[in-house]
Amino acid sequence: MSKESLDICLNFHPGREAMSFRDILYTYVLDQLLWAGDISVSEGPVVIQTLEEHHPGFAGKPCDLVFIRKLGISTCLLTPDADEVHFESGAKIVSMLNLQGCVEELRTKLL
Questions:
Q1: Residue 1 — very low, low, confident or very high, per pLDDT cuts 50/70/90?
Q2: pLDDT in tens, 7-61
Q3: In terms of CB atoms within 10 Å, which end of the chain has fewer, N or C?
Q4: Taking a C-beta distance cutoff of 8 angstroms, is the pair 47, 67 a contact?
């Protein structure tokens, strides 16, 4: 994981000495988006905040992170089925990540 990803995540929890698997997962997801060039460092906190606020509500069920942009304004969301998400015209899906796939990739890398 990149220093930029770690810095963004650690800024959400100043003083935290250890990271949980969930923290590492969110950092990993952020890193994937940054390295793909889908988001900028300044957009990273939006991703982390969305994951921290809403991912626990999926309670282990599959979900996708969808990052969208329209007229230079970006946001992201979590959805149980990204195939059923519809946006207004002009909104562009920048990235879609299956979080269950990210969990499996991360577990493989950590073992």
A1: confident
A2: 998 888 888 888 899 999 999 999 999 999 999 999 999 999 999 999 999 988 8
A3: C
A4: yes
What token pair was written down for 37? Answer: 């060039």
Q: What is the Cα–Cα distance from 24 to 6, expressed in whole angstroms?
A: 9
CA distance 87 to 22: 29
To the nearest 10 degrees (0 to 180), the angle between helices 21-36 and 44-54 is 140
Strand pairing class (92-98; 64-70): antiparallel
CB 94 within 8 A of CB 33: no
Rounded CA separation 111/89 (Å): 43
Structure tokens at 69: 């942009």
Model confidence over 62-93: pLDDT tens digits?
999 999 999 999 999 999 988 888 888 899 99
DSSP states along 17-52 = -S--HHHHHHHHHHHHHHHHTSS-GGGHHHHHHHHH
